[in-house]
Amino acid sequence: MSRHPEVEAILQAWYELETGDPSEKAAHLNRFHTLLDQAIAKSDTRGVSRAELKELLADPYREYKRSKRKEERARISRLR
Amino acid sequence: MSISVEPRWRAVGLVIDQNTRDLISRRYGLLHETISWFKTIELFRDAEGERMIDRDPTPSDLRQHKVWISQLIAEGERLVAEIKEHGLSRNQAGIKLSDVEATVEELYSTQVQWHGKMTRERKAELWEKVFHVKAPRG
After folding, report:
1. Is the Cβ of B130 closer than 8 Å to some Cβ of chain A?
2. Nearest Cα to A42, choosing from A53, A55, A56?
3. I want to staple B112 with a disulfide (CB 3.0 to 4.6 A). Which of A19, B10, B116, B130 is the partner?
4. For residue A39, which residues of chain B lie inside 8 Å, CB to CB?
5. According to the 3-state scheme, what is the secondary structure of B70-112?
């Protein structure tokens, strides 16, 4: 599946939260939650929680992290 | 009977256990304990990446992950409570209470990512109702 831009933005924000400096965690969390809340606000159903969206995105997020780790390894090997 | 634990997880567990003991005994002070917690999360993320992202996790990986993330969350919650009571001194790393709280939330997100119980039917429903697409295969 080619990625949905809204989903892609959420996955990126989640990744930045996990990998950002400790002193930037609060700012990254704010961005992540804002994107989740926007998706919830636009949805066709009521009562969806942030936690449910995170669980929904579990597998795409794992794939996103896997591709980021591959990119990082390739970048490091080019530097060597 | 001894239970075989992959060395990466064993290392994570040993560090978390030591941090917990230090935090309870207030051995090194709140700032030091907070920084140790952040460093332990990095160690945990390394193990998670190697064992669960780069490859498919085994049932043992999932069990270890579940145990250690619960303990990191508990330690983080304890740190938040201590910092609210005593404050966190200004520090070179620029870490604030809000960053510790955000990191606890990050860990809860990881917990639900790996150990949630959502059914395939609910996922299919949410993909359509929230993102207006069919659930990705997988």
Report:
1. yes
2. A53
3. B116
4. 130-131
5. HHHHHHHHHHHHHHHHHCCCCCCCCCCHHHHHHHHHHHHHHHH
Distance from CA of A41 to the nearest CA of B (A): 9
Whether B50 and chain A come into contact, CB under 8 Å, resolves to no
Residue A34 vs residues A9, A54, B26, B116: alpha-carbon distances, Å: 11, 13, 36, 22
Q: Report the C-alpha gap between B98 and B81 in whole angstroms.
A: 12
| pLDDT confidence of residue B2 | 46
Instruction: Report in angstroms the alpha-carbon separations of B89 from B29, B34, B97.
Output: 10, 11, 10
**Which residues does B84 contact at the CB level (< 8 Å), separation at least 6?**
B97
Q: Looking up tokens 């809340």, which residue turns up?
A: A37
Terminus-to-terminus CA distance in chain B, angstroms?
Answer: 37
How far is residue A9's CA from residue A72's CA, in Å, rounded to a whole number? 19
pLDDT digits (tens, 9 = 90+) for B77-122: 999 999 999 999 999 999 999 999 999 999 999 999 999 999 999 9
B59: contact with A, CB 8 A cutoff: no
**Cα B124 from Cα B40, distance rounded (Å):** 36
ipTM given for this complex? 0.91
Query: Rounded to whole angstroms, how far apart are CA atoms B4 and B13?
Result: 13
Predicted TM-score of the model (pTM): 0.92
Q: What is the largest CA-CA distance in chain A?
A: 52
